Amino acid sequence: PVSQALAGQHWLITAGPTREAIDPVRFLSNNSSGKMGYAIAKAAQRMGAKVTLVSGPVSIDVPAGVSRVAVVTAEQMEQAVMQQVSDADVFVACAAVADYKPAAIAEQKIKKNAKTMEIKLIKNPDILQQVGALKNKPLCIGFAAETENVEYYAKDKLQRKNLDMICANNVAKKDIGFDSEENELVLYCKNGDSVALDQNAKYTIASDLVSEIKNRFF
Ligand code: C5P
């Protein structure tokens, strides 16, 4: 650590996409690279926190001093988070969890015989909403990746998921968000405050976010 600003705190962070199997060789997923979540984990660790990173499949090295729990599906991510959450002071949900998963996983590879095919999807658990509903919940920070009505949807999630802060990014903007090196965020707090973190490298945005959380809530 380069500072002890977060010494004694345990930060639980989710990152990356989840994968939901269709058959033994196929899955549903999304474009999340995990870069933002990993940058937050690194920033919190460098400020002295104990950091647990629950990560979907990504190709990034674990930051030094961070303990990673590797998962694949939303259900596995939910289990890993629920196992750790009672010990966490801060929960940052940065993962792009698949909202739906196939209702059934085909046992064998699906053959391309039919001209059309349908996959029935069912809803995955909402991990952040579950944590936000806990009686002894940690400080809860969510993300809202939106392509339109960013502020409206972000504030809706802040309320609905019972969060302390939500970090909104407009993933329709070029050069920021999914799989890019830079990001820009607007933070909306439970008390009505908002803070803009202008476009910058993901690690810079992550450090500013972690400092903002520390200064506001601790
Ligand atoms: O997918 P949605 O826009 O609702 O995501 C908002 C926030 O909720 C994000 O912080 C995301 O990590 C979290 N989330 C979750 N479990 C889900 C869906 C979203 O923890 N199944």
TrEMBL record:
<comment type="function">
    <text>Catalyzes two sequential steps in the biosynthesis of coenzyme A. In the first step cysteine is conjugated to 4'-phosphopantothenate to form 4-phosphopantothenoylcysteine. In the second step the latter compound is decarboxylated to form 4'-phosphopantotheine.</text>
</comment>
<keyword id="KW-0511">Multifunctional enzyme</keyword>
<keyword id="KW-0436">Ligase</keyword>
<dbReference type="GO" id="GO:0046872">
    <property type="term" value="F:metal ion binding"/>
</dbReference>
<comment type="function">
    <text>Catalyzes two steps in the biosynthesis of coenzyme A. In the first step cysteine is conjugated to 4'-phosphopantothenate to form 4-phosphopantothenoylcysteine, in the latter compound is decarboxylated to form 4'-phosphopantotheine.</text>
</comment>
<feature type="binding site">
    <location>
        <position position="157"/>
    </location>
    <ligand>
        <name>CTP</name>
    </ligand>
</feature>
<keyword id="KW-0479">Metal-binding</keyword>
<keyword id="KW-0285">Flavoprotein</keyword>
<dbReference type="GO" id="GO:0015941">
    <property type="term" value="P:pantothenate catabolic process"/>
</dbReference>
<dbReference type="GO" id="GO:0015937">
    <property type="term" value="P:coenzyme A biosynthetic process"/>
</dbReference>
<feature type="binding site">
    <location>
        <position position="143"/>
    </location>
    <ligand>
        <name>CTP</name>
    </ligand>
</feature>
<dbReference type="GO" id="GO:0010181">
    <property type="term" value="F:FMN binding"/>
</dbReference>
<protein>
    <recommendedName>
        <fullName>Coenzyme A biosynthesis bifunctional protein CoaBC</fullName>
        <ecNumber>4.1.1.36</ecNumber>
        <ecNumber>6.3.2.5</ecNumber>
    </recommendedName>
</protein>
<comment type="similarity">
    <text>In the C-terminal section; belongs to the PPC synthetase family.</text>
</comment>
<feature type="binding site">
    <location>
        <position position="161"/>
    </location>
    <ligand>
        <name>CTP</name>
    </ligand>
</feature>
<dbReference type="GO" id="GO:0004632">
    <property type="term" value="F:phosphopantothenate--cysteine ligase activity"/>
</dbReference>
<feature type="region of interest" description="Phosphopantothenate--cysteine ligase">
    <location>
        <begin position="11"/>
        <end position="218"/>
    </location>
</feature>
<feature type="domain" description="DNA/pantothenate metabolism flavoprotein C-terminal">
    <location>
        <begin position="6"/>
        <end position="215"/>
    </location>
</feature>
<feature type="binding site">
    <location>
        <position position="99"/>
    </location>
    <ligand>
        <name>CTP</name>
    </ligand>
</feature>
<comment type="similarity">
    <text>In the N-terminal section; belongs to the HFCD (homo-oligomeric flavin containing Cys decarboxylase) superfamily.</text>
</comment>
<keyword id="KW-0210">Decarboxylase</keyword>
<comment type="pathway">
    <text>Cofactor biosynthesis; coenzyme A biosynthesis; CoA from (R)-pantothenate: step 3/5.</text>
</comment>
<comment type="pathway">
    <text>Cofactor biosynthesis; coenzyme A biosynthesis; CoA from (R)-pantothenate: step 2/5.</text>
</comment>
<keyword id="KW-0288">FMN</keyword>
<dbReference type="GO" id="GO:0004633">
    <property type="term" value="F:phosphopantothenoylcysteine decarboxylase activity"/>
</dbReference>
<feature type="binding site">
    <location>
        <position position="109"/>
    </location>
    <ligand>
        <name>CTP</name>
    </ligand>
</feature>
<feature type="binding site">
    <location>
        <begin position="125"/>
        <end position="128"/>
    </location>
    <ligand>
        <name>CTP</name>
    </ligand>
</feature>
<keyword id="KW-0456">Lyase</keyword>
<keyword id="KW-0460">Magnesium</keyword>
<dbReference type="GO" id="GO:0071513">
    <property type="term" value="C:phosphopantothenoylcysteine decarboxylase complex"/>
</dbReference>
